[in-house]
Design a protein that fits this description.
heterodimer, A: alpha/beta, Rossmann fold, 8-stranded mixed beta sheet, B: alpha/beta, 4 domains, 7-stranded mixed beta sheet, 6-stranded mixed beta sheet, 19 helices, globular
């Protein structure tokens, strides 16, 4: 949370230090709202902007890193290839904070392999899918998350079933799977904070309506439907490390999850208790929600037990990018020894 | 085009002394693959090499795990010519399926060893036939029945040791080396070898002239494959991130990297100072390399033709966005199935112009294991200095086969990390990512995590201005493209220059690169013996050094010799030297086997006869 005077955070920066360029996205685009939650999150957590890398693929979603965190490094990569670039960068410098920005086309179609394998490797990164069910930048083709039977102006009827990226993530052993709605910043923000604190790949599948091509009243990726059917699993609060929990919760109504860096999230039940640490519950709940035509949001699945890519590679604490010559080049003697045996 | 006919005799004269041919022959071992013959062949090769006889071994293998025909060819030559030859003086026929063809590949008066139990058509009357009791001797070995076919391959090692006079002590030393001193395995195999040698000494009458004599011709040399040398080079070059996807013939480079790095690249705390990641495909492998290079790693991948295709989008991106990366291409015949385990230099244009848009990549062209080692470390220096992907084009022959080599020179120069600005640099001088500050086309970069406000920038492909801002301004695009070409000119100062041998009275010259070097070198001597002198320029990098202009200019005709069908390097050089096109002729050939001195010699003689208007007989 903001400390010091009212305008600066814990490292003495103002919110302006986290802003981006003026957006060129369409007015009302869900991505704009997600971008502003990223700005607020980074500001409130007091992250050093230059330590953040924004990696994206191709599409409207992947353009959006230009519109937040201008003081951070950015890499607008190739279509569907954001996860591999982020993985490489995190191997090079394990102390960076990676925010991956992708879309439903970038992730669900051309990048599905990289999406799943980044999770399998557990690359430390926040993986945000700005999910609008349509290819915006190429003007309105169906994406892999488009509703079955949906009608679009030029492309007719979508005959294929939608892909549920959260389901895909859970079966790929992603240890942090959340769904949210760009129109619900109060939920997006704590999820973002928790995702940044997670030690591994944290997926945020955020319904982010495309006002130009997919905002019809019956589209599950449009504002109206999402607002009417948004069903939070729980209310989420993020508690940074060393900060006291001040709110009073009624006994039995909350559960808390402690994250890798010592921060925690408090999940307050809405209707029923939901245990996000059970994979089978998560899968069943998502299937139920699909049948009931609900937009189920919140932290769907959480598993802190997997080693991250940096850990499984047993990397030295110093970033590989910053090792000295003596650490990088073995001695002349060692080469001679090897050659004696050739 | 001259077709390399395996039934044409090897040219060059055998030197006989007292009726003996000493240290000058090829051995062809024909086996079904998966039968474990590789150990026997490597033991033979190493024993010969350690006896001081210049030798090479070529594994001609199919894309298969078990059962298909495979050949191993060892060439010994006191004079140091070790390029592969179409025919062998000595053949070991362990594969009945190919025996009739294999017999036809034996030089007249040569030797044919065969398992006595196998029914072979011993049709030629001009050969020396030696049967081997492989079944009987492997039955007597203390191994299970399932291991017998494997141990049977040690029988021909023993028989050859007797026939040629290979020292058993060197064979034992080679076994120790091969089995990493595991005593039980060494003794087991050695017992079969000595039993076979014993049997041969009592039962075979030597009727052929071929013998091995201890020599000092390999003194100071080592034997290693190019992929192992490349892996070592990368480790001594400070490789920090390697991402790859299995593909023959590059896989062993990644394997050797893991093998050596685990001992050589541990930190004081026992952690790794590198990461090696097997990716889900080549798209991800190069993606990780580009991401890592961008963030300050010395990042590399190793692949082959099909992988190069998949990596081309990122390679082009890396060229435009100016990201260091090292891509080893161990070339093979492509595409897809058919000849994936056969050698070719067929990716020259695919790598040189990899990517869409106007790209032209720096390519290094190692011609022996010592250069694989040197370019292994130097490629990182060049990539970081120039901030661009660097391709290193090896091939299956150089990468997977054992070559003699001079010892590797430990790098004398410190690592060149290129133009990287620290936080202090940025705070005192500011930062313009793509500005040509030094007028050499190479801009400055910062690494993610640089804490100075103003150090960060936005990386994207084609559309950016000098401050890395998004731009579709035609002027910005053109300026950038112009600067990238300027950078390529600057590159020459950092690239390995050609190795040139000038013959002052030569009308003709050869330009070659990579694994064809031994064949070209031998062909030059064979041609000289025919009265045809030639100069030779071995190219070691693209874009080609400007010194090739002078080389071409000083000869009437220059043949560009390469192991592909289209003459890819020839095309590249012609584009670079448009005014000298009539002097540049292509000698390109590829049938999946290494290029031979035989083929080069005959092709040059043919072409020269055409040029001179009179066909030689």
């Amino acid at each position: 949370m903001a400390r010091g005077n009212n305008n600066t955070n814990s490292i003495g920066l103002t919110k302006t230090d986290y802003r981006g360029k003026d957006t060129t996205l369409c007015a009302g685009c869900g991505h704009i709202s997600i971008g502003s939650q990223i700005i607020t999150t980074a500001f409130e957590l007091g992250l050093q902007p230059e330590k953040i890398i924004k990696i994206s693929g191709i599409g409207c979603s992947s353009k959006s890193p230009a519109y937040f965190l201008s003081r951070s490094f950015a890499f607008n990569a190739l279509h569907g290839r954001m996860p591999s670039v982020a993985s490489g960068a995190m191997l090079a410098n394990r102390h960076l904070i990676a925010i991956g920005i992708s879309g439903d086309g970038d992730t669900g179609s051309i990048g599905l392999g990289q999406f799943k394998h980044a999770m399998r490797r557990n690359t430390p990164m926040v993986y945000i899918v700005e999910n609008n069910g349509v290819y915006g930048l190429t003007k309105g083709q169906f994406s892999a998350t488009a509703d079955e039977g949906q009608e679009l102006k030029y492309y007719g009827t979508n005959e294929l079933p939608p892909m549920d990226l959260c389901l895909e993530a859970i079966v790929s052993d992603c240890g942090f799977v959340a769904r949210s709605f760009a129109g619900d910043p109060k939920q997006v923000r704590p999820l973002l904070k928790a995702a940044i604190s997670y030690n591994g790949t944290a997926l945020l599948d955020i319904v982010s309506p495309c006002v130009a091509f997919n905002n019809a009243a019956d589209s599950t990726k449009g504002y109206d439907w999402a607002r009417d059917n948004d069903t939070p699993l729980h209310d989420i609060s993020y508690i940074p490390l060393h900060e006291e929990i001040t709110a009073d919760y009624e006994p039995g109504t909350t559960s808390s999850v402690t994250l890798h860096d010592g921060s925690s999230i408090i999940l307050r039940k809405v209707d029923e208790n939901y245990d996000p640490t059970s994979r089978t519950t998560a899968l069943r709940t998502l299937e139920d929600a699909k049948e009931k035509n609900m937009l189920l949001t919140g932290l769907l699945y959480y598993n802190p037990r997997r080693a991250s890519l940096v850990e499984s590679e047993r990397l030295t604490d110093t970033a590989l990018s910053h090792l000295s010559e003596t650490e990088l080049r073995p001695s002349e003697e060692s080469l001679k020894t090897i050659m004696t045996n050739l | 085009m001259v077709i390399a006919d395996p039934l044409t005799e090897n040219i060059g004269s055998e030197q006989k002394r007292n009726g003996k041919v000493i240290n000058d022959f090829s051995i062809l071992v024909a086996t079904p693959n998966g039968s474990g013959s590789q150990t026997s062949n490597l033991v033979l090769l190493r024993a010969l090499f350690k006896m001081g006889v210049p030798s090479s071994g070529k594994n001609l293998f199919p894309s298969n795990i078990q059962g298909m025909p495979t050949w191993y060819s060892i060439r010994c030559c006191q004079d140091g010519y070790v390029s592969w030859r179409e025919r062998a003086e000595i053949a070991v026929l362990m594969n009945p399926a190919t025996a009739p063809d294999d017999i036809a590949k034996i030089q007249p008066g040569g030797v044919c060893l065969y398992p006595e139990s196998a029914v072979n058509e011993l049709t030629r009357g001009d050969l020396n036939y030696y049967p081997m009791p492989t079944k009987q001797l492997s039955k007597e070995a203390p191994v299970s029945a399932s291991m017998r076919p494997y141990i049977a391959n040690m029988v021909y090692v023993g028989v050859l040791a007797h026939v040629l006079g290979i020292e058993i002590t060197e064979i034992e030393a080679a076994l120790r080396w091969q089995f990493s001193n595991r005593d039980k395995l060494v003794q087991l195999n050695l017992s079969v070898i000595t039993a076979a040698e014993e049997w041969a000494s009592q039962n075979l009458t030597k009727t052929d002239p071929y013998v091995v004599e201890r020599s000092s011709a390999t003194e100071g040399l080592m034997m290693i494959d190019g992929n192992s040398a490349a892996a070592l080079g990368a480790i001594y070059g400070g490789m920090t991130v390697m991402s790859w996807y299995p593909i023959t013939p590059s896989t062993s480079l990644a394997d050797k990297l893991s093998h050596y790095a685990k001992d050589l690249r541990r930190s004081d705390t026992g952690k790794n100072t590198y990461a090696i990641v097997q990716a889900e495909d080549e798209l991800a492998a190069i993606g990780m390399v580009i991401g890592a290079g961008w963030a300050g790693a010395r990042a590399m991948t190793a692949t082959s033709g099909p992988g190069i295709s998949l990596m081309s989008e990122f390679a082009g991106f890396g060229y435009y966005a100016e990201i260091p990366a090292v891509i080893w291409d161990i070339q093979r015949v492509g595409p897809s199935t058919g000849l994936p385990t056969r050698v070719s230099q067929g990716d020259v244009t695919a790598c040189y112009w990899s990517g869409h848009g106007d790209t032209e990549h720096v390519c290094l062209l190692p011609g022996n294991p010592a250069e694989c080692f040197e370019f292994g470390w130097r490629a990182f220096d060049i990539a970081e200095r120039l901030q661009t992907p660097v391709f290193v084009l090896s091939d299956l022959d150089l990468g997977m086969n054992n070559w003699m080599t001079t010892p590797f020179d430990y790098p004398e120069e410190p690592l060149d990390r290129g133009k990287v600005l620290t936080a202090k640099d940025v705070s005192s001088n500011g930062f313009h990512r793509y500005l040509d500050v030094d007028d050499d086309g190479i801009p400055y970069r910062t690494l993610p995590g640089n804490e100075q406000n103003g150090s960060a920038y936005f990386t994207r492909g084609s559309g950016h201005n000098a401050d890395a801002m998004y731009s579709e301004d035609p002027k910005d695009y053109l300026e950038n493209m112009k600067r990238l070409k300027k950078k390529l000119n600057t590159a020459q100062a950092y690239l390995p220059q050609p190795v040139t041998v000038l013959e002052h009275n030569a009308d003709i010259g050869f330009i070659g690169f990579g694994s064809t070097d031994p064949a070209i070198t031998e062909a030059r001597d064979l041609l000289a013996a025919e009265g045809l002198a030639s100069s030779y320029l071995r190219l070691r990098a693209l874009p080609a050094s400007t010194s090739i202009t002078n080389f071409v200019n000083t000869h009437n005709r220059v043949y560009v010799i390469e192991l592909n069908v289209d003459g890819q390097l020839h095309k590249v050089i012609r584009l670079q030297l448009p005014n000298l096109n009539t002097q540049l002729l292509s000698l390109a050939y590829c049938d999946g086997q290494p290029l031979t001195a035989n083929w080069i010699t005959k092709s040059v003689l043919d072409k020269e006869a055409e040029e001179n208007g009179t066909r030689k007989q």
